[in-house]
Each structure stands twice: as structure tokens, then as C-alpha cells.
Fold each of these.
Amino acid sequence: MDFTNKSVLVLGGSRGIGAAIVRRFAADGAKVSFTYSGSPEAAQLVAEETGSTAFSTDSADRDAVIGRVRDSGPLDVLVVNSGIAIFGDAREQDPDAVDRMFRINIHAPYHASVEAARQMPPGGRIVVIGSVNGDRMPMPGLASYALTKSALQGMARGLARDFGPGGITINIVQPGPIDTEANPADGPMKDLMHSFMAIKRHGRPEEVAAMVAWLAGPEAGFVTGAMHTIDGAFGA
Ligand code: NDP
């Protein structure tokens, strides 16, 4: 895919799936910037490797997120990848931790997408990383996380209506288990997760980045308000 001269911002690009997305767009010629919060050293390494620009921006801070998007100028592509999961029985979870996750996983994607669409030219693309857990939550302890990923579905359906007339698309990519620090392929949950799947392995961050690149490219202009699952049939 050729993204030469395209301006791309990735929220949450220092590690895991986000870093693979930064690498993909940089390799395809884009001018890439990305945000990070807790991992400045990893961010610096990704920036040096790819020739991209890293900005410290906490996705839990709504005004910082809006400011980062606004200050990026007209974007051709916005990818919202930053996301966290908190585990545990809902009755025992700290409500402040739950609300912080809601700010990162729901509020940031919404406000970033709206702010980006204010400046985006026709042909602009917004891609948000959801989860197959937005469709299917077969394990206990992840109710609040699943809620955040389901919320993105309604967001995409609605914002597609607002942005479509301006030639801007918005889509959700819904990974299943992907090998990152958040969900290592050799982690304690691997056998349980693989038992739900037709392809019994973790996906690779690069596989998710490839789907993001296609959705951000010229062939996907008729694709909007939709969920795109990449999960080895975890949710099938
Ligand atoms: P990682 O924990 O490996 O990486 C998360 C990335 O998001 C890091 O770059 C991190 O940056 C950034 N991030 C997290 N919190 C913030 C914050 N407050 N502000 C700015 N950046 C932040 O996770 P994954 O790569 O596995 O997950 C990426 C996305 O994919 C998430 O939305 C996740 O929900 C989703 N997903 C992942 C799956 C998986 O199996 N791995 C499956 C389904 C969905 P930093 O460390 O600098 O804060």
C-alpha cells in the first residue's frame, strides 16, 4: 500500500499492536506521528527505527487527546489503538480504575475521532482498535472491558452517518488474541483462549496492522460504520 505524503496519527504507538501499525504506515511511506504514555523508552526506539514522531499524551486525559489531534493538523488517517484491560470480578473492581479504563477505551476514541473529522479532507480514514470481546465475552472477569469494546460499535455506526457526506470513513478492527505484552502467546490463558478458536494460535500484531492499512487505503472507500474481526474464529 502506498501512503506517500499521507499524514497518519496513531494514538498508542509505543508497543504491541500500535507499534506494528506505526511500522506498517512508515514502511508504506506515510508521515507518521504517534502517542504514548507509560513507555517513553519504547516510544523513542519506535520513533528512531521508523523516522516517526512520538508525543507523550495520556489517552485518559480528554483535553490532552483533543489537543494532540488538533495540533496534528489535517490528518489523512487517524488510528486509535491505545487501550487497556482490567481483570477481575466486577463486584471487586475499583470504580476509579474502571472509569479510567472507560476514559482510555471509550472517551478517547470518541473525542479523537470527532476532533480529527473536523479537519480531515475528503478521503480521510479513521480506524479504531476494538476487540472480538465487543461481540463475544466467553470468560468471567472482563465485563467492564467488554463494555468498552461494545461501545465502539455504536460509536462507529453513528459517526459513519455524520462523517460519510464529507467522504470520511470510520471502522472498528476487532482482534482476537494477539501476541503482545498485554496478551502473550505463552501466557496462562492461552489454552483456554485457543480452545475457542478455529486457528489455534495467537495472531501477530503485523496481521492486525495489515487490516488497518487496507481500511486506511484507497480500496476501502465504500467501507464504513463496520466492524472487522481478525480473531482466528474466536468469536465465530
Ligand atoms: P499493549 O499493552 O501491548 O500496548 C498498549 C499500547 O497502548 C501501548 O503503546 C501503550 O502505550 C498504549 N496506551 C495504553 N494506555 C495508554 C494511555 N493512557 N495513553 C496513551 N497510550 C496508552 O496492548 P496491545 O497492543 O495488546 O493492545 C492494543 C489495542 O488492541 C488495545 O486497544 C487492546 O484493547 C486491543 N486488543 C488487544 C488484543 C490482544 O490480544 N493483544 C485483543 C483485542 C484487542 P504506553 O505503554 O506508552 O502507555
Note: The mean pLDDT is 98.
Amino acid sequence: MKNNEQAIRRIVIVGGGTAGWMSAAPLSQVFGTQPGGPANPVGCEIVLVESPEIGTVGVGEATLPSIRYYNDMLELDNADFMRKTQASFKLGIEFKDWGHVGNRFFHGFGGFGPPIVNRSSVAHWLRLNRAGGMPSYEEWSVATVMARRNRFALPEAGAPSAANAYSYAFHFDAGLYAAYLRDYAMARGVKREEGTIVDVSVRPGDGFVTAVTLADGRRIEGDLFIDCSGFRALLIEGVCKAGYHDWTHWLPCDSAQAVPCDKTLPLTPHTTSTAHSAGWQWRIPLQHRTGNGHVYCSGHISDDEASRVLMQNLDSAPQGDLRQLRFKTGLRKRIWEKNVVAVGLSSGFLEPLESTSLSLIIHGISALVELFPDKRCEPHLVDEYNRKMTRQYESIRDFIILHYKETRRDDSEFWRYCAAMPIPDTLAHQIESFRRNGRVVILDRDSFGEDSWLSLFLGLGMQPQGLDPLLKQVDEPTLREHFKRLHMAISRTVDGMPDHAAYLDRLVGVR
Ligand code: FAD
């Protein structure tokens, strides 16, 4: 970084939840000290303030494959990280009772393998499927086949094959993960201040934040403030008044209850989401326990009834008390405003149906590093950041709404509302595109690619009316032979993989 007087000299991270420490760790890599290296080589300090009195939201156990790129960027040791965070592998999400009661489908990470001729394999599969006689699309997703059989092995290096045509993520204890990253960041020079912020100073004129003051009078000055204060949004809303797009008319769930229970076997390498009458329930298997939660719409079910539904759908005895959470789904109108960048729950909230929050934190911090400003926080950087992040939020929002909108459930007021509700134009176009000829529109490195959208469309029982007009007509017997061989290769590969729990035991040592 250029050593000039406009360079950022001090970054203050407000909040020590998952977002705070996930922000601190890569910033400490860019600006901090290497353990054993010279002190603060670029002259930019990083301070993180957290309040033990306020605490953290304490949930967030399921992730997307982007977490691996994040961990790799930090050069974390996989086995050590998994041991210390009680992690398990995740190949996707099993959906139960979504679409209609009794329905079961899987959103696996990675799909049909490389394109055939000029179009994706899925497009060719859709053509054969229309003609009939094809096994379900799930049987060509290696991740889905592995998950259905509780198998796991890391993808093999080398040419594309069934042994590497899948991706994976992790389930982990969010508190342990934040602590793991805290040790990482502090070893690289991040300073941690404990205390509750009671006052914020701004510069007269441009309104840039200059310092936060703690309850005991300590004052912490900075040039750039990363607001990781959770739903409180202390700086981005409390000071900058960024505003909020409320999306509850599209995603009406506003409450959650969470409770862990004793672990059970088999250790499934996937999250489970089961739809209920006014929301849905998650099941997340970790090494030491299973995380559970019921996300629901308080306008359609009471808290007491919601907890009764949650408790009667646990695998085993609950551990500890049930936690009640409230939220408002939506997005901050400006996620970066002046010299305040919101990362984590302070930037917006989408229910955890597709485990997207930590992935949005990764997007947020990566975009900040890419567009890193000087003290002026010039508008072109700020606007580009807001554009990128808004696009990410909106594409995930649409993906989540689709789960609710395309339902044939009419067993409750909640599902009748979801089936009838208006949807964003962007999602309406996506549905229309798929209905017409099985195509999916992907923009701007969206979080969910073609395979994900298709697993959802097909899993919910939707079928395209026509075919992709750019599909080159490979002759049908050749195509059928290709898919038959792929199917056999997937079965053979998965047959040779160990049980998930056995694989994990070998990797992390005795549990
Ligand atoms: P928090 O954890 O709330 O941390 C806020 C921090 O700010 C705390 O350290 C607090 O002390 C500090 N703070 C606040 N005010 C002050 C103050 N005045 N002074 C000093 N410090 C202050 N995400 C996923 O990716 N996967 C999931 O499966 C998932 N499940 C979820 C389930 C539910 C029900 C909910 C609500 C969320 C879920 N999430 C999930 C989201 C995930 O939990 C969050 O994105 C993640 O924990 C980040 O939270 P955070 O750090 O922004 O906020």
C-alpha cells in the first residue's frame, strides 16, 4: 500500500461475532503482522471491539462451499479446523415436505459434470427426460448420491471425473469457529478491546465516524469502521441512517427458536430442512451434537405452538434451553455509507434456508479487500461495493422465495399466502425462463449457479415446456449412452467411498 497521508491507518471492527472475526482474520493477513515477523509492516492497525454483556447471536452452523475458499485463503489446516470447531462435512441440503407434503428432494453441491457439445449437461438431460425413461436428476449429482448413502471422501485431483464432480462445505459450531478465527487474527496483530460502545463521534461537515467511546470512557479512534454489531446495526443504521429494504412481504418468517440435541448416528453429511405448517425446521449434524431450529412466521403460529413443533421433531434429548430469536428480512439500503461498511447481520438478513449468511460475509469482506479505499472512501468505490452486495443479496433472496412460492401446499393459511404472494420481477423472469425452455439466468458470479436452480425447480416439481433453442441435437442413442456411462461411474465411485463418520474419524482423530 502507498505510504501517503490519505492511507488508512486504523481499522475499527465493531463486534466480535462470526462476522467480526471473519472480517478481522483476512484483514490481519493483508495488513497485520506475520507471527514472528516485523511489527505492523504497513502501518495500519486493526482493533476489534466486542461487548461480553451484549453477546453474539450464537447460531449459524451450516455453510456453503465458499467457506472452503475462505479457509484456504487463510491457509487454515483442514483437520485442525474441523477438530477445533466440531465440524462435519456438508454435501448439500435435503428438503422434506417442500412443494407438497411427502415431497423429498436434494440440493447437492455440484451437478451433472462438464458441458456436452455447446450446452450444459443438464440441458441435454432435460431433453432426454422429456422423452422418458431417465432416472431422476438427483442420480447424476455425485454430491446427492454420496449424501443419500452417507458417504464422504474429498474430491480427487486430476481430470474431470465422478471422483471430483462435486463440491462440499462444512457444518460447525459457530462460537468455536469465531474463537478459532480470533486466535488467528490476534496472532497476526489484531487488538481486541472488551467493552460496550455507548457513544459514537462523527466529524462535523461530512459525517464520517471518527471514534467510538466505551462505557468505561475509553475512546477508540479510526479511519475506517466495519460495523459487525449484528441486528443492532450500531453504526450503519444508528449513526449513518442507511435505511432498510423490508422484504417480509416476500419472506414472511420473522422468528426462530433454536435448540441443540444429543448427536445420533448415522452422521449425515448434509443439512435437513423440513417444512412445517408456518415455516420450516433445520437439522444440522455436528461431531458433538445436532443443531436444530424452527424458523416461522409469528403471524401464523404462536411461539408456544412453534416450540411444541420443534421439540416433537428432534432426533433425541434436547441439550439446554431453547433460544428465541426475532428478525426482519431485508437489506440495508446502503451497506457501505461514508467510512462505515456493514458486514454480517448489520448489513441485512435472509433466513438460513440455504445457509447463505456466512457466505455473504465472505462476499462482503472479499469485496472490501478488492475495493479497499483510502481515508476519503471515494464514491465510485462505495457505489460499486453497494452494487455488488445488493446483487448478491437479491439473487439469494429470489432463490429462497422460490422455495415458498412454488408450492402446492394448501394445508395452512401460511402456505396459501406464499402460493398467492406477488414476487420480485427478477424471480418472475427466472421462473418464466425455466418454464419456457429450461434455461437459468446467472449474473455477476451469483451465489447459486445453474445446478442449484435446476435442483430446486425440478425438486419442487416444475418442468420446462420447451427445450433450449441452442441445444445442438446430439443423436439420442449417443446421449443416452453417455448418461448411462456417467450413471455407472457415479455408482462405482460412491461405492468405493467410506462412511462419512469413518472418514471424519480418520481425518480428525478419535471423537
Ligand atoms: P452477532 O453474532 O450478533 O455479533 C454482534 C457483535 O456485536 C457481538 O460481538 C456484540 O457483542 C457486538 N456488539 C453489539 N452491540 C455492541 C455495542 N454497543 N458495543 C460493543 N459491541 C457490540 N448463517 C449461516 O451462514 N448458516 C446458518 O445455518 C445460519 N443459521 C442462522 C439461524 C438463525 C435463526 C439466525 C438468526 C441466523 C443464522 N445465520 C446463519 C446467520 C449467522 O448467525 C450470522 O450471519 C452470523 O452469526 C454473524 O452474526 P454477526 O456477527 O453479524 O452478529
Note: The mean pLDDT is 93.
